[in-house]
Amino acid sequence: MFSDKQLKGPYKIWEHTHQFVEKGKGVLMKDEVKYVLPFGIIGRMIHSLMVRKKIERIFNYRKEILNKIFKENGNDHH
User: Fold this and answer.
1) What Å distances lie between residue 26 and 3, 36, 37, 53, 72, CA to CA?
2) Helix%, strand%, coil% for the chain, nearest 5
């Protein structure tokens, strides 16, 4: 497991933990993201309108690409 922590950037807090867990004959990769936008209530409104969906798209795309890579290399997983 390892974590990325934003020291300087657009988020008030950004911590992304990558965890790898043995599962059967493979490895399950888990991501946990803790983040807070700046600007209080305005940041929360921006989160609801745009940021949450953008982050979900990023991680869904990542999952799709990783599944494709591992499937092409003979490993079927979900």
Assistant:
1) 21, 33, 35, 30, 15
2) 40, 35, 25
* pTM, full prediction: 0.73
Q: Over the range 21-35, which residues count as b (16 or more CB within 10 Å of their CB) and which as e? A: eeeeeeeeeeeeeeb
For the chain, the domains span: 2-72
Distance of CA 41 to the CA centre of its chain: 24
Residue 78 reports pLDDT greater than 60: no
Distance CA 41, CA 44 (A): 5
pLDDT digits (tens, 9 = 90+) for 12-32: 999 999 999 999 888 889 999
The vertex-11 CA angle with 9 and 45, nearest 5°, equals 145
